[in-house]
Amino acid sequence: MIILLTLVLYSQVEIPLEMKQLQQEIKIINLLNGLELLSYQMTYILEKVQGAEKIRNEFHQEITKNADDFTETLSQLKEHSLTNKDISAKLGQNIHNLNTQAQSSKAQYLESLDHISHDVETILDGHQLYQLEHYIPCLIPPPGETKIGQSDIPTGVIKQLQKLRKIPDWLYDVKKNDIAEKTMEKLKRHRDRYSEFSEDEEKTRILDLFDEIRSIPDIEFALNKQRYAEELKAWGRPAKPGIALSSKIKMFLLDPLIVPILNEMLKTTQAQADIID
Q: Which of 21, 22, 179, 242 is deepest in the core (most CB within 10 A)?
């Protein structure tokens, strides 16, 4: 309660830098606890963080180098605006050139970060990508959710899918259409009333998903059961606002604040390995 009250109070004013950093560090730790990265993944991410930081520094240096020109041009524009005079062709051209240069530098900077983000994405396993995609940044994970801080795991749907996998093949072939239709009826109750849909297409989608769920090995289902449950539930509902996977990688896994955290985790992992050896 004290933490929540403090955050509410500080949400009305500018949060001190130290507090912002502590909050970000906690969010990063909560995410890493859920991802359960292996040593080689942590080492790889550390290398990519260094690359991302180098790109950020180069971008900032580029902006700083042109700061005087920007300031001078904006000051001239301010004077013209105050006197409500038309700007000269030369001033207009200067503004255009500086803006074009800034946009080009920014585009190159963002493209470089996107490449690094993609590299990090490729090093993560399927279940880790799912965890990251569904990670809700938080300071205190919901009770019982020590892994990642999710609060909307569809446990009821997962149980239904587990039962579906246990049905004998002959009985599934007989009952699958009825099961799909009943599933569709349940989903329709939560459907956005303004969304368009085709019942035939939806039934086909559900049956295809059921067939896929029944065909995969137990270990693959265990790793992907939440994704399957969410995929089944998602039909007919407006998409939840969220943060793209690439943005989450840049926001958390490429944040310089992750460096000491990963180094500490690597030390702990190595110490545990030494004890086992």
A: 179
Q: Write the CB contacts of 238 (distance below 8 Å, at least 6 apart in sequence).
A: 192, 195
HEC states along 191-247? CCCCCCCCHHHHHHHHHHHHHHHHHCCHHHHHHHHHHHHHHHHCCCCCCCCCCCHHH
Q: Is the pTM of this model over 0.70?
A: no
* Alpha carbons 95 and 34: distance in angstroms, whole number: 48
What's the mean pLDDT in 18-29?
90
Cα→Cα distances 2→22, 85, 91, Å: 16, 55, 54
CA distance 97 to 45: 37
Question: Cα-flanking dihedrals φ and ψ of residue 129, to 5°?
Answer: -65, -40
In angstroms, the Cα distances linking 152 to 133, 134, 143, 148, 250 are 13, 9, 12, 11, 24
Asked if residues 99 and 120 have their Cβ atoms less than 8 Å apart, the reply is: no
Residue 217 backbone zone (phi > 0: left; psi -120 to 50: alpha; other: beta): beta
